[in-house]
Write a structure and sequence with these properties.
heterodimer; A: alpha+beta; Multidrug efflux transporter AcrB transmembrane fold; Alpha-Beta Plaits; Gyrase A, domain 2; four-stranded antiparallel sheet; 21% strand; B: 295 residues; alpha+beta; 2 domains; 10 helices; 70% helix
């Protein structure tokens, strides 16, 4: 696209500057003199997209739970009783219910997602910043409360006052989920309509019988986790109490199935089991990430010195390419919202090593070519062309390994694999393409020890 | 410098390494993390040296016959087999009530069913990547001059990788025995990275062999070409591993606690990978090539 080298250098400079601005955290600049004041900042931009209400937030990296601290719970869903075509749906409804329960904890940003492995459904709940493991487990793992509520004595049915909420209308009765044995969907013999059947214990049935007697033509609210599921109205036929198991009529099949399965499992359509839980304190992670980042930069600095000594002017270009590489990768992490975890940082640091490898392969090749008596310009050209085959093949094998890691790894391992793969791809761009532009523009003669 | 003149010696050394590696692994075994066995690890913070034996006897009183209590600087780790969420919380409260200096830093519980799955997935991942790389190398070096079959290169790569992996595993078997270092999913990650990167080194040498085969076709024997190629790529192999080891070593020394042993595994693995790409992979190719011709 760009014929001459200086325009290519310009494009690289612009891209690198953009990447730098994206990857930088917010740095305030305050400078006062007699003549002018500067009160501004660079980096950490939050940009409103024109013509929309959306915005892009570059203020910070998305940090993983191991850095930010918080609670993570993995729940296994027991799908033994669920037909395979309904399993995905059940998993989704469990996820929704769990979401609702977690929201009671008053946390701002939770993520719950379904993961399937080895034909097992799991739900992974991550609550960043949550300090109380007990509360989280309690709200996730407890079987929710099933309650039968009646219309508040003194209120007439139907309700006419539109200001009354559900909680104003219904009050607890003596009957709860404990009195219920089960629930099923069946069909009425007369018109074949689906109905929800409720099966009570002997004791419960007696209590329920007296409840319906007092509430003829009024609704009975069935509540789960304080959410109204159904409010069937007691029919006149039940004025003398129950003769058979009570049923809820006037529902379609889908609703009947859903509601009865919700009632059955207490709260969730399938039984759940907590298989993994962790609580991570924030200080530990933050300390680790700071240390690791500093370690990474120290390592990078030593590599710069080493490259400059070994490859002289080429080494200087390599250092610049590596710096461009670092800002490109960091900017990509922000743009793609890659979750940064500690293994992810390790993967990134390791990929700096991989990027060095590409440079070294090329420079060693240039060295050989010039040793064979080629003039600098041709040695450089041959070096880049001929080293490419090794670079391509050898990096592909590392990409292959990171792909397999991504497929089979769990959360943290996936993070490492992703950062490594992004790192490898950019190392190829920076060390092969960009460094070539820089070398062919600025290096007239290669010098080696 | 004819590195490959010492082929027999080099292969003997590798065999020695492999045999002692297998001996170490079978004698010392591994310390596996809760990710594989299931259980709970509590992390506490304390500014002074704690009486770990009293904590251990408290756990014994509470019915945990085998527990693991260790302190590394300010970080105290307690590992038990309990996985029930409620009882884990209960246990945490009891430990905190027993020793008032401790500050809770983290809890991690993994159910034992998850552990079995982790182990299975790890195994699949390692086997798949080994196979994948065998296929990849065989495919990449297809069409070698002189009708040299490319599977010989693939097999040699696999041999070199096996060597690297074995060295790292036996190193961690020793580390587990002497320093209580555990095998966890991060270790698996390191292992797969080493597999990927050690092949990287080997492929660079093989790539040079291919190039020289074309360049010096019929002017040199395969043996001479292999020797020349190893020599030509020696500098690059050493410099590359030096830089990677440098940066991973600074991560090991100065980096965060949780990726310390991960970095160490990479340092050891990359050192082994460089050795094997120079001293094992190519002699191995020659070895297969010779024996295959005779038969």
């Amino acid at each position: 696209m760009f014929k001459n080298n200086s325009s290519k250098v310009l494009v690289v400079t612009i891209l690198a500057t953009l990447a730098l601005l994206i990857s930088l955290p917010r740095i305030d600049i305050k400078y006062e003199t007699k003549y002018f004041n500067i009160d501004s900042y660079i980096g950490g931009y939050i940009i409103n997209l024109p013509f929309t209400t959306k915005f892009v937030d570059f203020s910070d990296f998305k940090k993983g739970l191991d850095i930010e601290g918080g609670v993570k719970v993995v729940i296994r869903l027991d799908m033994a009783q669920i037909r395979s075509e309904d399993q995905q749906k059940s998993a989704e409804s469990v996820r929704d219910i769990l979401n609702r329960r977690i929201n009671y904890l008053g946390v701002s940003e939770t993520s719950t997602y379904i993961s399937r492995s080895n034909n097992e459904y799991r739900i992974i709940v991550e609550i960043p910043g949550q300090k109380n493991l007990e509360a989280a487990i309690k709200s996730i793992g407890s079987t929710a409360q099933l309650k039968f509520k009646i219309v508040k004595p003194g209120l007439s049915w139907p309700i006419t006052d539109p200001n009354l909420t559900i909680n104003d209308v219904f009050v607890d009765s003596t009957i709860t989920g404990k009195d219920l044995i089960g629930s099923d969907v069946s069909f009425e013999s007369t018109n074949n309509q689906p109905v929800i059947q409720l099966k009570f214990s002997n004791d419960g049935r007696e209590k329920f019988s007296s409840l319906v007697k007092q509430n003829v033509k009024k609704p009975i609210g069935i509540f789960l986790d304080d959410n109204l599921l159904q409010a069937p109205i007691v029919s006149e036929e039940l004025a003398n109490g129950l003769t058979t198991d009570p049923t809820i009529t006037g529902v379609d099949l889908e609703t009947a199935k859903n509601i009865s399965s919700l009632i059955r499992a207490g709260a969730l359509p399938v039984p759940i089991e907590i298989v993994q839980q962790s609580f991570i304190g924030a200080t530990l992670g933050q300390e680790s990430i700071n240390k690791s980042l500093i370690a990474g930069f120290i390592g990078l600095f030593i590599i710069f010195i080493f490259l400059n000594i070994t490859y002289k002017n080429l080494g200087f270009i390599a250092s610049i390419s590596l710096l461009i590489y670092v800002v490109f990768v960091l900017a990509t992490f922000k743009l793609l919202n890659v979750v940064i975890s500690l293994p992810g940082i390790a993967g990134f640091v390791f990929s700096i090593g991989v990027a060095c490898d590409a440079c070294i392969l090329i420079f060693e090749r240039i060295k050989e070519e010039s040793r064979w008596g080629k003039p600098s310009a041709i040695a450089i050209m041959n070096g880049y062309d001929r080293a490419w085959s090794s670079i391509k093949d050898s990096n592909f094998s590392t990409l292959l390994a990171s792909f397999i890691l991504f497929q089979f790894g769990s959360g943290f391992v996936k993070g490492f694999a992703l950062t490594l793969a992004i790192g490898i791809i950019f190392s190829l761009i920076c060390c092969v393409y960009i460094s070539r532009i820089l070398v062919s523009t600025f290096i007239k003669e290669v010098k080696f020890k | 410098m004819k590195i490959l003149n010492y082929s027999k010696l080099l292969i003997a050394i590798s065999l020695l390494i492999i045999i002692s590696g297998i001996y170490i692994i079978s004698t010392f075994g591994f310390k596996t993390s809760i990710e594989y066995t299931g259980g709970t690890v509590f992390s506490f913070n304390s500014s002074k040296q704690e009486d770990l034996i009293s904590i251990k006897s408290l756990l014994k009183e509470l019915g945990f016959e085998t527990s693991d209590v260790s302190q590394d600087k300010q970080l105290i780790k307690i590992k038990v087999s309990e996985t029930n969420p409620d009882r884990v919380v209960e246990l945490k409260d009891k430990i905190l009530a027993f020793n008032k200096d401790l500050k809770l830093e983290g809890i991690e519980t993994v159910g034992s069913s998850m552990g079995i799955e982790f182990a299975k997935n790890s195994f699949i991942a390692i086997v798949l990547s080994l196979l994948g790389i065998l296929v990849f190398v065989t495919y990449t070096f297809y069409n070698l001059p002189n009708n040299i079959p490319s599977w010989q290169f693939g097999l040699a790569t696999l041999g070199a990788m096996f060597h690297d992996v074995l060295i790292v595993i036996s190193f961690f078997s020793l580390m587990g025995y002497f320093y209580g270092v555990e095998i966890d999913s991060l270790f698996l990650t390191a292992l797969l990275t080493i597999i990927g990167f050690s092949v990287n080194d080997t492929i660079v040498v093989f790539d040079r062999i291919r190039e020289n085969l074309i360049k010096y076709n019929n002017k040199m024997s395969f043996y001479e070409i292999a020797n020349l190629s190893v020599f030509e790529t020696l500098n690059r192999s050493l410099i590359t591993s030096f830089t990677v080891i440098l940066i991973m070593f600074s991560l090991y020394l100065l980096g965060g606690e949780s990726i310390k042993y991960f970095s160490l595994a990479l340092v050891v693995g990359i050192a082994a990978g460089t050795y094997s790409s120079i001293f094992i992979a190519t002699p191995f190719v020659l070895f297969i090539n010779n024996n295959f011709k005779k038969s």
